[in-house]
Design a protein that fits this description.
Blueprint: H1 3-8, H2 11-21, H3 29-34, E1 44-47, E2 59-60, H4 65-72, E3 78-82, E4 96-100, H5 103-113, E5 121-124, H6 130-139, E6 144-148, H7 151-163, E7 169-172, E8 185-190, H8 199-203, E9 205-215, E10 223-229, E11 235-242, H9 258-262, E12 272-276, H10 286-295, E13 299-305, E14 311-317, E15 323-328, E16 335-340, H11 345-358, E17 367-372, E18 375-380
Length: 396
């Protein structure tokens, strides 16, 4: 690869783009320049930007150095592991399980963390090591603890961090448990998403400390929560922007095949037919899915697409008791629905959507999260305005 190509796609060009977006701030710029992204990206990657050459295929640096370099210095996530390391071939595995995150997201979350000199920081999810190294540059290696559940990944990331000149406490273990030996922390940051904030994170954070973590309901949609820990052991704060991270391994949710819901019968089995004016196409955006998922817990969607552009939206519950389908066809004003089981999942979703519309179609920034002794509560605008939860046996 020529020097010219390196300059065209390289650290300074990416820095300029991140500064222009406002993601990379002046206080993080020295760390960025001292620790360029390519030092923390492995030899074998799967670039994550749509439209890029071989975006769905493996790229090996020694074989395609130009493609590898351009991927590293594109503002996009890079998958570095599939299926907990079980899949290493060309193409893609089933589930991405480690990545080097999108630089915009990396620095936006670090900015939300509001670290200061001398702060002790706990990072959940070492990944490739870039985030941990950036934190070491800001607060010193002695003040950083990073936890990674994947033993091989932790070893490789630790070596990259050490080669860069830093020596944080690198722990192999379940990030949901935090690392009590290093507590209390001033800041906690997760580079994986959760559906429930682990209580050890709150308990290991000083009063007044900050927790920054991606959070999302089972249904889909996800945002970064910035929580401040109170003197009473609670944590509360607003969401600060959209995100899409891999789930904390301890909180992964297995999703069963539709055949298990139908009980061996052909669709629509015992489903009850109805019609709706709500188009399945209106409920697929990330922010809408978040608003729906908060209200309709323990349920998730799946789209079965057809060659003519139509599709069936499936809704299923994690208890494998209820399902629903809604058929989308272009230019239709009414859509066919089938529902089965104790939960009328389409009705729950439609009611949740109407509530979201009535609130003025709020985006992530109007929602917040509180973690206390009664569990977790998502709210709109303020903690005293909880988002309703719609489920049989509960008031909405």
């Amino acid at each position: 690869m020529s020097t010219q190509h390196e300059a065209e796609a390289g650290p300074e060009r990416l820095a300029s783009a991140l500064l222009e977006k406002g993601a990379l701030t002046s206080d993080w710029l020295p760390a960025y320049r001292r620790l360029p992204r390519h030092l923390f990206v492995p030899e074998v990657i799967w670039p994550g930007r749509a439209g890029m050459n071989r975006q769905d295929d493996r790229v090996i640096r020694s074989q395609e150095p130009g493609t590898w370099w351009r991927a590293v210095y594109t503002d996009a996530p890079i998958t570095t592991q599939w299926d907990d390391g079980a899949y290493t071939g060309p193409g893609r595995g089933k589930v991405p399980t480690c990545s080097n995150s999108m630089p915009t997201m990396v620095f936006s979350m670090l900015d939300a963390l509001s670290v200061e000199d001398g702060h002790r920081v706990l990072e959940i999810g070492t990944g490739t090591g870039w985030n941990a190294a950036l934190l070491c540059h800001r607060v010193g290696s002695d003040n950083v603890v990073t936890v990674e559940v994947d033993e091989a990944g932790a070893e490789e990331a630790g070596e990259r961090i050490r080669r860069a000149g830093f020596h944080p406490m690198c722990v192999v273990g379940d990030g949901a448990k935090g690392y009590p030996q290093g507590a209390p922390y001033d800041r906690v940051i997760a580079t994986c998403s959760v559906g429930s904030v682990p209580r050890p994170w709150v308990g290991q954070t000083r009063p007044g400390g900050v927790i920054v973590t991606p959070w999302g309901p089972t249904y889909g949609g996800e945002a970064v929560a910035r929580l401040v820990v109170g003197d009473d052991g609670t944590a509360s704060g607003h969401f600060v922007g959209s995100s899409a991270f891999m789930r904390l391994r301890a909180q992964r949710i297995p999703r069963r095949h539709v055949r298990e819901y139908l009980g061996g019968r052909r669709w629509p089995a015992d489903g009850v037919r109805s019609l709706t004016k709500l188009s399945p196409d209106d409920i697929g955006d990330w922010a809408v899915m978040f608003a729906l998922g908060v209200q309709v817990p323990e349920a998730f969607p799946w789209m079965e697409a057809y060659d003519d552009g139509s599709y069936t939206l499936w809704l299923r519950d994690t208890a494998v008791t209820s399902w629903a389908t809604a058929d989308y066809e272009k230019d239709r004003t009414e859509f066919e629905v089938y529902q089965s089981g104790p939960r009328s999942l389409w009705d729950e979703v439609e009611t949740a959507y109407r509530w979201w519309e009535k609130q003025g179609r709020p985006g992530f920034e109007r929602f917040g999260l509180t973690v206390d002794g009664d569990g977790e509560h998502v709210w709109l605008d303020s903690p005293d305005n909880p988002v309703p939860v719609r489920r049989p046996g509960r008031e909405a």
